[in-house]
Amino acid sequence: MSMRTSQKKQVLSFSIFIILLAQINLDIFASNFRVSMGVLLLPILIFLYQKIAVLPILLLSGFGVYLSRVLIHGLQHAFSYQSLLDFFPELIFYYVYGCLFFLYFRKKDYKLPHRQCYLALFFMDYFANLSELICRLQLNAITPSLQINILLVALARTVILWAVITGLSQYKFLLISAEHAHRYQRLILLISKLNSEIIWMQKNAVLIEDAMAKSYRLFSQLQEQQSDPELTQNALTVAKDIHEVKKEYLMILRGLSEALDLNLRDGDMSISDILTVLQNSMTILANEKGKKLVFHANVEFNFKTDKHYFLLSVFRNLFTNALEASCDDNVTLTFTQQEQEADYLFEVTDNGPGIPRENLDQIFNPGFSTKINFETGEISRGLGLNLVEDVVKNQLQGAVRVESQPGKTTFYISIPKKQLEVHQV
User: Fold this and answer.
1) Whether the predicted pLDDT of 290 surpasses 80
2) What CATH number has the domain bearing residue 312?
3) Within this chain, do residues 197 and 300 fall inside the same structural domain, yes or no?
């Protein structure tokens, strides 16, 4: 069965790389016996890609190295039948090395265990070199000096291989760690946003209950007054429909709350880590809006809290509002945290246009918003600051106020320490 097109391309490209790398070589020990770096590429490819077509790659690259040696020698000197014979043992090296490599790593499921593999690679290198020397010199290859030399070559190539793979391992680890950290930050923000929506859903559940009660009272009043039967029946239908919506709504809310509760009780974060997550998120948001964010943070006491999702919701809404309200391309946000006797005081200041005096009393009301996209007609939900107030007051038993003037708006938030500090069980 023929290999798939993608695998054929892989075999061809890897073979070419090995052939090119094999041009870095030294002609030592014996006539036309060359020590090259091409064979080092195969273990590196196994490390990077794991399962690759080892035998086809070695067969093709071995023949390619042999042919390149003959061509280069012919161009430098002259093409002859003798050169074909002189470089033929290089095929022996690659084919012996390839067979040993294939047999060993097939049993290891093409993985590179740290200690065993380097010892095995050392002996593969040695036996492949020994096979080539025997092909060239017959029994004259079995001399102490040549054996020591090829052992040193095998050791040198194995050490180089170890250094390269160790370096790649560290680099790969750093990339994975950075990716995991990025994913973790996105997950934390997602849970924070879900937590905000859950709070609104809980408030809306009360409104749904109230609407259902009003509809049923309307039905009762119409029935007592013997009003139009169709109108009375419609009022009852509305009450029943709202009741069904309420049941489904509460089921969804219960499921989300139970799933989210597991995450809300999971671990804790320091205030500096919270700010790091938010700064990274806000920087990305600012770039998307074509703005540059300058963020300053002054943390007096870097405490840990298990209410980090609530603080993320509060500060994220304040930062986002400042970023969206700014008319300038450069947005400066300043975060300050201070420790008082029984409270933590947080200040969030931006350099935006400020809040008009007549709007200061309304900004925490649900639905109030001055942000509108004149291109799309989209209006903000106006829930961000209301959520900030709700979380601070009802969830954390704190207080929030705002002072604003053109070019400077500051939100002051105070929260009792006992509400934020991690509670040991």
Assistant:
1) yes
2) 3.30.565.10
3) no
Res. 335: pLDDT tops 90: yes
Euclidean distance between CA atoms 167 and 175, whole angstroms: 12
257 & 287 share domain = no
Q: How far apart are the C-alpha atoms of 280 and 293, rounded to whole Å?
A: 10
Total domains in the fold of the chain: 3
| Gap between the Cα atoms of 325 and 382, Å rounded | 13
* Rounded-to-integer distance, Cα 194 and Cα 113, Å: 43
Q: Do 300 and 242 have their domain in common?
A: no
Residue 133 belongs to domain with CATH number: 1.10.1760
For the chain, the first-to-last Cα distance in angstroms comes to 64
Interatomic CA distance for residues 216 and 177, integer angstroms: 58
Confidence tier at 173 by pLDDT (50, 70, 90)? low
Phi-psi region of 134 (alpha: psi -120 to 50; beta: other; left: phi over 0): alpha
Alpha helices in 226-344 (DSSP H): 229-264, 271-288, 308-325
Residue 166 has pLDDT above 90, yes or no: no
pTM (global) more than 0.70? no
Instruction: Please tell me whether residues 257 and 330 are part of one structural domain.
Output: no
In this model, does residue 26 exceed pLDDT 70?
no
Name the residue range of residue 89's domain.
5-142
CA distance 286 to 66: 57
CA distance 295 to 272: 13
Pair (400, 303) in one structural domain: yes
Q: What is the mean pLDDT of residues 279-304?
A: 88
Residues 241, 282, single domain; the answer is no
Q: Collapsing DSSP states into helix, strand and coil, what is residue 341?
A: coil
Report the DSSP beta bridge partners of residue 405: 408
Count of positions (residues) in the chain: 425
Closest CA to 15 of 66, 64, 67, 61: 61
Contacts of residues 337-344 at CB distance under 8 Å and 24 or more positions apart, as own/partner, are 337/271, 337/298, 337/299, 337/300, 337/301, 338/300, 339/300, 339/301, 339/417, 340/414, 342/416, 342/417, 342/418, 343/398, 343/414, 343/415, 343/416, 343/417, 344/301, 344/303, 344/414, 344/415, 344/417, 344/420
